[in-house]
Amino acid sequence: MADVVGTGDRVHDRRTVKRARYAVGAVFAVHGAVTGSFATRVPWIQDHASVSAGQLGLALAFPALGAAVAMPLAGRITHRFGSRTALRGLLALWTLSLILPSLSPNVYALCPALFVYGAAAGMSDVAMNALGVEVENRLDKSIMSGLHGMWSAGALLGSAGGTLAAHLGSDARVHHALAAAVLTVLGLVACQWVLDLRPTEDEEPPPRFSLPPRSALLIGAVGFCAVFAEGASLDWSAVYLRDRLETSAGLAAACTTGFTLTMAVARIAGDAVVDRFGAARTVRTGGVLATLGGLMVVLAGHPAVAMTGFALMGLGIAVVVPLCFAAAGRSGPNPSQAIAGVATITYTSGLVAPGAIGTLAEATSLMVSFGLVTVLACGLAVFAGVLRAGDRDRQRISGGPGAAVPDPRP
């Protein structure tokens, strides 16, 4: 039998697909490194732009607006230029946009800078996740948790660099310019090896906008809870320790690093855990851990307690989004539309969360804001059952009771 994977016009030899898997993993890592680099320097940006917590919350809502406007364009860009060229351009736009927020002298400049930052983040995220799903289908095994683990590993490296820069008291403008240059080069190199998929001549371009199918709404709601906690923790954990517990800038940044570390470890190990215990049980257990972590953050009187709480939240929510994508692909007659719907809901959640946390903190306190995060984390444990269909499909594919022929998705 020929060593090929895929069907129809999308047949690739297995070596090419495996190489593409590693390339997409590198792209995920580069994407995450941009986020980590930004998140650890949010306190510096806040001080440099002289904005209050409420103004910072407002500014951090602009990435959500930028992503909402731009994400639907990613499919059309990919359709026109092909997956490799589209990803190369969108990823470079994302890495270079890291420079913009730290250059902003006030809230009026920070808001449009974060709009562009969010637009670039959303489009590149859609493009790389679409390629990740394509590779997973061709390999016929779960890789999405591992790919998201690479994103977290990249975020860990980015936040570690940010922690060092903050500890040394370096200017974020210099730090982000150097990081953007390095990550742009790494991203362009990685994109050389991703799958170069192009539409057939009679394939219609995707619509500019479409509502998520009903089958994706409940799954998307689970993803919403997890990504809200992730976005809030990434952008506000350092501020929480600095403002509420009066820690140094270096220790505050280290809290963000610890959060991304637990997420990276859990995602890298996630595929094996899900195969052993199933998606629903994994998410339910994760919800319990994330809720416990949220309570520790809210009640913390010492930095170590809060840092442990953020680490537990990272561990608990780590694999939820990859499992939501996988469940969406099995939830209805149009897997790609369902995946796109879940992606829109979850990604918008992550970009809305920082702004919502800041707005609530301005009206009440950061402690109350993370009380909301804790409630949403509890929702993971309550509603994890909506992912149970994925467990049944995995059991059939792996040859369990009632085994059936594996899903021959192209």
Topology:
Elements: E1 4-5, E2 12-13, H1 14-39, H2 42-49, H3 53-59, H4 62-81, H5 83-97, H6 99-103, H7 107-139, H8 144-167, H9 172-191, H10 214-244, H11 249-268, H12 270-277, H13 279-299, H14 303-317, H15 320-329, H16 335-363, H17 366-383, H18 388-397
Antiparallel strand pairs: 1-2
3D structure, described in words:
Helices cover 78% and strands 1% of the residues. It has helices at residues 14-39, 42-49, 53-59, 62-81, 83-97, 99-103, 107-139, 144-167, 172-191, 214-244, 249-268, 270-277, 279-299, 303-317, 320-329, 335-363, 366-383, 388-397, and strands spanning 4-5, 12-13. A two-stranded antiparallel sheet has the order 1-2. Helix 10 (214-244) runs parallel beside helix 16. The longest helix is centred in the N-terminal third of the chain and has 33 residues, at 107-139. Residues 394-410 have low confidence and may be disordered.
Number of strands: 2
Sheet with the most strands: spatial strand order: 1-2
Order of helices and strands: EEHHHHHHHHHHHHHHHHHH
Share of residues in helices: over 70%
Query: Please, what is the average pLDDT?
Result: 84
Low-confidence stretches: 394-410
The biggest sheet amounts to: 2 strands, antiparallel
Q: How much strand content do the residues show?
A: under 5%
Helices, by number, come to 18
Q: Pairing-aware structural class of the strands and helices?
A: mainly alpha
Global Rg = 20 Å
Overall 3D form = globular
Distance between the termini: 18 Å
Indicate the multimeric state: single chain
Task: Tell me briefly what this model is.
With 410 residues, the chain is mainly α. Helices cover 78% and strands 1% of the residues.
